[in-house]
Specification:
single chain; alpha/beta; Rossmann fold; 3-stranded antiparallel sheet; 8 helices; 24% helix
Length: 272
């Protein structure tokens, strides 16, 4: 399992825009498409689709996609939930450009009016965050797939990918603090991360989000978890709960398990 495009179902005849080094890739069995960097940067895949599966099918109101990249998670929600308005929030000007091109694709015209783009740093605080367009108590849902590689991990010469993948100190504290600020009371936070980050995430959620539910994601039965999916509700006081694990594969081949296939294609959801 990776944060690449391994799980993206390629559109028939998906092509490369040579001038801008991009591909157009189909997700949710062709229900939405992304313009993504070719051969560099972060390419969305299973992580983003599982993150989107944490958002209720009947979602309405406004959803913020923190660190949206080309817009995978937010657009996965918008394409199957007509009552939601999604704001893709991305710091990188280059990745924000891919997100804008994704919104403008003819293949996404059916729901493009539900999606807006904001180039901003979600780690901003106070007046700076407000000035960047992230108003307090303005969203019903926040989803995030923060960079998860530590400073000790092998680095990549691809600067665009490094920016998307490299975690800096106190990142979860900063992102979750901002998520709490922009969430309305009883708003939902949803995120995907490495299991090694669980302690930091729980500490950042303390006093902000409660009723936390954690779903471990394993490559196969008998193998250690490589991701966690977490959701919580602003101001909730319910106890932490661990849910049944997800197994990406059931056999030795690369085919997704039936459950993960349903989740990754927007046909099923991880209900609270």
């Amino acid at each position: 399992m990776s944060g690449t495009d391994d799980s993206a179902e390629r559109a028939s005849g998906a092509h490369c825009d040579n001038a801008n080094a991009a591909t157009i890739d189909a997700f949710h069995r062709g229900r939405f498409h992304l313009v993504q960097p070719k051969g560099k940067g972060h390419r969305a895949g299973l992580d983003a689709m599982l993150l989107a599966s944490l958002v209720p099918a009947e979602v309405s109101g406004k959803l913020a996609d923190f660190g949206a990249g080309a817009g995978a998670a937010g657009m996965a929600v918008a394409c199957r939930s007509p009552a939601v308005q999604v704001v893709l929030i991305e710091r990188s000007a280059q990745m924000a450009g891919f997100a804008r091109r994704s919104i403008d694709l003819a293949q996404n015209a059916r729901f493009a009016g539900q999606v807006a783009l904001l180039q901003a740093d979600v780690a901003l605080t106070g007046a700076d965050r407000q000035a960047a367009g992230l108003a307090d108590s303005s969203f019903d849902q926040v989803v995030m797939n923060p960079p998860f590689n530590s400073a000790d991990d092998r680095t990549t010469p691809d600067s665009l990918k490094a920016e998307a993948h490299a975690m800096h100190e106190a990142m979860f504290e900063q992102w979750i603090r901002s998520a709490c600020a922009v969430c309305k009371p009883s708003g939902q936070l949803s995120l995907i991360a490495r299991p090694q980050s669980l302690r930091e995430i729980l500490e950042a959620c303390e006093g902000r989000f409660g009723g936390l539910q954690v779903t471990p994601v394993h490559p196969r039965p008998g193998e250690d978890a490589i991701r966690i999916l977490l959701s919580g509700i602003k101001g909730n006081r319910a106890r932490l709960a661990f849910r049944a694990p997800l197994y990406v594969h059931e056999g030795e081949d690369r085919a997704f398990s039936a459950r993960v296939d349903e989740l990754s294609n927007g046909r099923s959801f991880l209900r609270r």
